[in-house]
Amino acid sequence: MRFFLTFMFCFCCFLAPSAAREVMSVDLGRESGGKHVVMSALVAMAPEPNGKALLLFPGWPGIPRIENREGVPSFYYLQPHFEEMRPILHAAGITTVTVDCPTDQWGTRAINPTSCDDKYRSSLQHAQDVAALIAKLKTEKGLRHITIMGHSYGAVSSHWLSLHLDKGEIQAAIHSASKTEVDSGAFANYGSSIARFDHSQVKVPYVYLHHQDDLCRNTPYSYAKKHAKQGQLITVTGGNRFSAPCGGASYHGFAGRRPQVADALVAYINRGEVIPLVKGD
């Protein structure tokens, strides 16, 4: 895990100089430690935006710590697979946004999180915080169609937001390589809320995106296959597994299939089309 996060950090620092991205923050109207609490996002507008945006809630540790430092975007890590797919999304007019936890949920800066766990992610407070950020994105960037996507542990957010937010705020949700099995001890509350998640209460259309051979023990394909509505499952096959099972260069991170996955995301976001099987040429 340490090697994987170090790789992600270096990968993103390499990309940063050439990326046309900006930090957008919204004041959430509360204080923590004597400071205003804000929720921030890293926004990359498409060159020719079509008014649609894909908001990513990243995987473990789920707290990218996005902020401006002397006018330059700064972050702890980003998702390599999402960054690799971004040019294809942009070419289709889709703006990409990586969403952070609010600053009162940052916890201790480390490889493993100490905050922004399921207690927050499953709460109405989380939904209200994200709604405030979305409202600012719509007002300042002219975005009218919002699709949220949670990857791995970030899918805890995409699940609960799809239940707490309605079509006036988001139009669809994508649960990518969803974390649905929990660990013990200090990590027992990361993913625990999914056991009580009620799919029948979801307010917006949703799809599951999952590799059928995902080897990460916390993100079994069987859950996606069981809970996806008919015709609302995007199954990925093949690719590479160069890293540990839950790492970025693995089936879990769609290694070797990222262009094809990006095409499937474009089809869903722009046309409402679900591509049931994503495979290589």
- CATH topology description: Rossmann fold
User: What is the typical, i.e. mean, pLDDT?
Assistant: 92
* Count of separate DSSP helical elements: 7
Quote the beta fraction: 15-25%
Could you state the CATH homologous superfamily? Alpha/Beta hydrolase fold, catalytic domain
Question: What top-tier CATH class fits best?
Answer: Alpha Beta
Which sequence of strands runs across the widest sheet? 1-2-6-3-7-8-9-10-11
Q: How many structural domains can be distinguished in the coordinates?
A: 1
* Overall CATH architecture: 3-Layer(aba) Sandwich
* Major sheet size, sense and barrel closure: 9 strands, mixed
Total count of strands:
11
Distance from N terminus to C terminus (CA atoms, Å) equals 31 Å
Structure description:
It is a single chain. By secondary structure, the protein is an alpha/beta fold. The chain has a single domain, classed as Rossmann fold (3-Layer(aba) Sandwich), CATH 3.40.50.1820. 28% of the residues lie in helices and 22% in strands. The protein is built from seven helices and eleven strands. The protein has a nine-stranded mixed sheet with strand order 1-2-6-3-7-8-9-10-11, with helices on both faces. The longest helix has 18 residues, at 124-141.
Can you give keywords for this protein?
disordered N terminus, Rossmann fold, 28% helix, 7 helices, 281 residues
